User: What shape does this take?
Amino acid sequence: MSALLTAEDVTTALADVKDPEIRRPITELNMVKSVDVAADGRVTVEVYLTVAGCPLRDTITRDVSAAVMALDGSTSVDVVLDVMSAEQRADLSRQLRGGAPEREIPFVKPGSLTRVYAVASGKGGVGKSSVTANLAAAMAADGVSVGLVDADIYGHSIPRMFGIEGSQPTVVEKMIMPVPAHGVKVISTEMFKPDRDTPVAWRGPMLHRALQQFLTDVYWGDLDVLLLDLPPGTGDVAISLAQLLPNAEILVVTTPQLAAAEVAERAGSIAIQTHQQVAGVIENMSYLPCPHCGDEHRLEVFGSGGGQRVADGLSRRLGTAVPLLGEIALDTRLREGGDAGQPLVLTEADAPGAQAMRDIARRLSHRQRGLAGMSLSLSPAG
Ligand SMILES: Nc1ncnc2c1ncn2[C@@H]1O[C@H](COP(=O)(O)OP(=O)(O)OP(=O)(O)O)[C@@H](O)[C@H]1O
Assistant: This one.
């Protein structure tokens, strides 16, 4: 019965529509400008976009329309888009920061419950970015709130692996909204280059600033897990990261090859200098499941034992047990999925490599976060 539908009913329904980037109800973010319900059930909703040319305007229009059309009594819906004023954006930015001052890293604040993992490798090309992307997608599919920083400044491949190449984040009053993809909030250096083909030639201080900006100026919201894809080797980024996020735990990705393992062990042992913890080692490209007999018969294309060797070596050097978290099979579908923006854990969840990554993702997201670098707010007993 159209006569019964009121503007309040519509506003209540709009409380279920979330801004796709900020992931909070549009009503709470003061994005609903007006609601009008005509006697014949025609509904007009005016919505404020945070910025003109918002890349997700179609998604917002669709979600608002769907919420209104699901109501008894609505006969049609017209979504009219407007853009917030500078003052409204400043209010929103203040609201999102929850009153916290600018330039603060939320993940190092005492009481932060976000587990931070920096994914490192010794050599390039061992699949560090592929593994990071799949771990993030697997966590998100499990309902974990996950953010991903592509800090691989020179070889940023995360946007391609998530199908968001060329996407630009929305910026609201100096606050950067991560780009959502497969349920993961993604920020990459690629998004800040003037054009995609320009190589990034940033040196130490620039890199440090970029990383700092990803941590202070991006609106991450409440994250369970933050993953950072580091460049290969032990470089400026790893050192900067340790300064900015001393509580980040390191994940080392290597291949079974012993030569790669030596380099990976060196990359992991940076944790000794930076007083960070190593959460574990992941061996990628471990084996090729035999095309004839399946996963039981493993062809060891790149040798064997590298991952365990790195885990044992780091355990010795650090004096704490560093586990081998899993062995990921070679799978051409992993590469194809990476090129097509579709992580293997989502498209072929039962493939041996996908299963291994889903297990590792579960293990990492359910772990208690490490205490390294965390203020325990304790004072010594008298
Ligand atoms: N388990 C796997 N099976 C098949 N192909 C894989 C596997 N892991 C990674 N690859 C492929 O290997 C190549 C290198 O992977 P990726 O870019 O993830 O490595 P990386 O260590 O992040 O490299 P870099 O840090 O040098 O950019 C990619 O083409 C990727 O699709």
About this structure: The pocket of adenosine-5'-triphosphate is lined by residues 121, 124-130, 152, 155, 157, 232, 284-285, 328, 330-331, 334-335, 338, 353 (CB under 6 Å). The chain has 13 helices and 15 strands. Residues 352-366 form the longest helix (15 residues).
